[in-house]
């Protein structure tokens, strides 16, 4: 199967996210290590600070800048940075192609990387055709320290692809030995869980990895897609939308068509051929415009990036990038790279955000809103801590640079050297940010800086000693994203978490995107009929750009909806001292027929993203693995939480006539009305059997052990 975009490796640097949509967290661990914040980069001559961000804008200075058109990055800087990214991507792909030129070598390196617990570049640099000193073509693309980052990125790609291939081979071996498993994989609407566990257990690369279950599931889904296409080709059916393909293949196995035996025989022969000859993998490539400095082991100018506080503009930081050979840069007085430099600036918004959060916290305290004040005080502490980490990182860079330059002089000031050594040692042991990452999407350049997550000392300083002893249920619905309920001292406390305004805006944009897509498809079809082979005209291309822009807005709204809902959920749990939060396990839920647009509403509900964001936030607040579990949703929406008997869905709080999909729940035995989502949340609180929402957790404690 083709994999265009490579991800971070599954063992060394797993994919992460953050409390506000950017915090990063490893699913295989019980705590967050880094919280990643994003900063929008601007050309160095642009006025960054605007009204509401610290001071009034200088209109005259804005008019004199090269970026007065409103673009954050000038055309010159964007062109230079594009060449820089092209060099980096070419160097990574050059290394990857050399690794995969020999399949046995790629297999050996992948296994070594899986067993190694350090930086991957230390293994790859031992290869003669990958080292910097003995390869002229690599030296033409990058400088020596950037070569380390290139090798690290290539090591991640190699490890990820090797693990994926191992899982594929384990899955193919299992299907080859059992025709029953092969039929079950294609016949069922979802991948059988026992089949996923067998693939995971047979693959040594992920056997002890907490996320192995999810990676095995992804591999089986990809393999099932290839088998679905083979079945459709055997039946002379056209391939279409993936969901429709699945429905057609399932119908073939359920209805037991006449040539079912020959289809199964063809599938078995194909699987056996893949086992004997190998699955037709392709060499992975790095295609995204991104540069990662995570292989930098020290914050010095040799790593290729340099931070400097702007002496004239408050809370603005200059970022200097060292350019590889063949790309001309500009000279800057504050740059240590002389003429081979490209400069950007970004706003350090941490002090301003911490100040505003503290003012809001004081106001909330005066108004008697203790819980909101607690939330804002924690936000203030986190922003202050991140600001301190950024300043410590910048100070360490400059101290090391001055110390190295002083030691190279003939006449050395011993007192100054001693002072700088003591300062460097102190800063090295302090809380600092990790090496950054650069991303370029269109004309927007983003800098991502990983910051150390709040430590237990900071959390206890804000919240003080507190005891978590309750269990809450969370029902995910259509009218409201999450309904929460907790029982304390025999009394239920409920909450409906809603974000209606932003959800309505998102739905309007989705409807607009569908309309534009239909219009563009119609115009493209007409153009292909009349002028087949010719490029599309400008109006069609502009419409396509508009569609992409609309979907970018929708994705931003998705992140904002998940962040708002998760934030309200997490802080409600903190208010009620919730230790364990249980969600419904709706992973394999299929909506029944007769509910019109229910399937579409369920597919756009962001349930998975909301659970992930809630988990990230609770882990950042000190809860082990977030305290998130999933429960069996069987009858949680149909039975009464008081008597346990089945009830009816009704239209309003006084109605007793059943209405499918009604907002309220009526129990004829108790003669009471509840909000349907609240009733389900209360049922979830008392569900005994639970499964883990976090990979690697298999225990199912009873309710008594949680209280």
Provide an overview of this structure:
With 707 residues, the chain is α+β, with helices and mostly antiparallel strands. Among the domains are: 292-452, no CATH class; 470-494 and 561-706, 2-Layer Sandwich (Nucleotidyltransferase, domain 5). Helices cover 48% and strands 13% of the residues. The protein has helices spanning 59-64, 75-99, 103-115, 121-124, 136-141, 144-177, 179-187, 193-202, 212-234, 242-255, 260-277, 350-366, 370-407, 414-428, 456-463, 500-530, 538-575, 598-603, 607-620, 676-685, and strands at 34-40, 42-43, 290-292, 305-309, 316-322, 341-347, 437-441, 444-452, 470-475, 482-488, 491-497, 578-584, 628-631, 648-650, 664-667, 672-675, 690-692. The strands form four sheets. The chain has a six-stranded mixed β-sheet. A hairpin with a 6-residue loop joins strand 9 (470-475) and strand 10 (482-488). Helix 2 (75-99) packs across helix 6 (144-177) and helix 6 (144-177) crosses helix 11 (260-277). The longest helix has 38 residues, at 370-407. The chain is globular, with a radius of gyration of 29 Å.
């Amino acid at each position: 199967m083709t994999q265009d975009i490579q991800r971070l490796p599954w063992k060394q640097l797993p994919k992460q996210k953050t409390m506000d949509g950017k915090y990063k967290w490893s699913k295989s661990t019980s705590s967050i290590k880094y919280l990643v914040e994003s900063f929008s980069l601007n050309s160095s001559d642009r006025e960054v600070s605007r009204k509401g961000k610290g001071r009034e804008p200088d209109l005259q200075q804005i008019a004199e800048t090269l970026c007065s058109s409103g673009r954050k990055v000038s055309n010159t800087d964007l062109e230079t940075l594009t060449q820089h990214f092209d060099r980096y991507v070419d160097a990574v792909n050059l290394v990857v192609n050399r690794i995969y030129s020999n399949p046995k070598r790629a297999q050996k390196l992948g296994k070594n990387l899986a067993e190694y617990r350090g930086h991957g570049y230390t293994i790859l640099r031992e290869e003669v055709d990958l080292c910097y000193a003995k390869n002229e073509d690599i030296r033409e693309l990058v400088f020596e320290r950037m070569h380390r980052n290139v090798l690290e990125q290539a090591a991640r790609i190699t490890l990820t692809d090797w693990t994926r291939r191992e899982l594929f081979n384990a899955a193919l071996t299992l299907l080859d030995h059992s025709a029953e498993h092969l039929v079950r994989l294609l016949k069922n609407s979802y991948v059988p869980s026992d089949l996923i566990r067998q693939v995971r257990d047979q693959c040594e690369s992920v056997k002890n990895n907490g996320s192995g279950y999810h990676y095995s599931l992804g591999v089986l889904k990809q393999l099932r897609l290839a088998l679905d296409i083979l079945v459709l080709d055997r039946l002379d059916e056209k391939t279409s939308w993936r969901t429709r393909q699945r429905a057609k293949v399932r119908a073939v196995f359920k209805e037991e068509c006449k040539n079912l035996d020959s289809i199964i025989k063809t599938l078995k022969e194909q699987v056996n051929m893949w086992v004997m000859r190998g699955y037709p993998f392709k060499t992975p490539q790095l295609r995204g415009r991104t540069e990662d400095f995570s292989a930098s082991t020290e914050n010095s100018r040799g790593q290729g990036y340099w931070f400097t506080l702007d002496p004239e503009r408050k809370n603005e930081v200059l970022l200097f990038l060292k350019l590889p050979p063949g790309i001309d840069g500009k000279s800057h007085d504050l740059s240590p790279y002389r003429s081979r430099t490209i400069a950007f600036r970004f706003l350090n918004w941490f002090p301003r955000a911490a100040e505003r959060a503290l003012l809001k916290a004081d106001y909330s305290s005066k108004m008697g809103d203790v819980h909101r004040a607690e939330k804002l005080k924690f936000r203030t502490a986190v922003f202050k801590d991140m600001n301190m980490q950024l300043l410590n990182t910048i100070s360490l860079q400059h101290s090391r640079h001055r110390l190295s330059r002083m030691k190279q002089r003939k006449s050395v000031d011993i007192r100054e050297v001693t002072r700088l050594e003591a300062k460097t040692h102190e800063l090295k042991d302090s809380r600092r940010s990790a090496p950054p990452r650069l991303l370029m999407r269109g004309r927007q350049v983003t800098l991502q800086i990983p910051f150390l997550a709040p430590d237990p000392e900071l959390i206890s300083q804000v919240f003080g000693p507190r005891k978590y002893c309750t269990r809450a249920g969370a029902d995910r619905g259509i009218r409201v994203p999450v309904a929460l309920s907790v029982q304390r001292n025999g009394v239920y406390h409920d909450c409906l978490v809603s974000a209606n305004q932003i959800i309505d805006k998102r739905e309007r944009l989705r409807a607009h995107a569908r309309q534009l897509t239909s219009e563009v498809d119609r115009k493209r079809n007409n153009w292909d009929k009349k002028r087949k082979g010719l490029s599309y005209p400008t109006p069609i291309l502009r419409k396509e750009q508009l569609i992409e822009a609309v979907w970018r807005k929708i994705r931003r709204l998705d992140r904002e909806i998940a962040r708002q809902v998760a934030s309200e959920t997490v802080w409600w749990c903190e208010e009620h001292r919730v230790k364990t939060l249980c969600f419904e396990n709706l992973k394999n839920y299929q909506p029944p027929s007769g509910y019109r647009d229910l399937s579409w509403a369920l597919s756009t509900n962001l349930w998975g993203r909301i659970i992930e964001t809630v988990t990230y936030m609770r882990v950042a607040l000190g809860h082990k693995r977030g305290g998130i579990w999933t429960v069996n949703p069987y009858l949680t929406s149909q039975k009464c939480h008081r008597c346990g008997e089945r009830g009816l869905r009704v239209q309003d709080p006084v109605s007793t006539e059943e209405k499918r999909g009604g907002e309220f729940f009526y129990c004829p035995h108790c003669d009471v009305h509840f909000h349907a989502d609240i009733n389900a949340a209360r049922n979830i609180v008392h569900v005994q059997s639970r499964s883990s929402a976090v990979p690697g957790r298999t225990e199912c404690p009873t309710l008594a052990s949680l209280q």
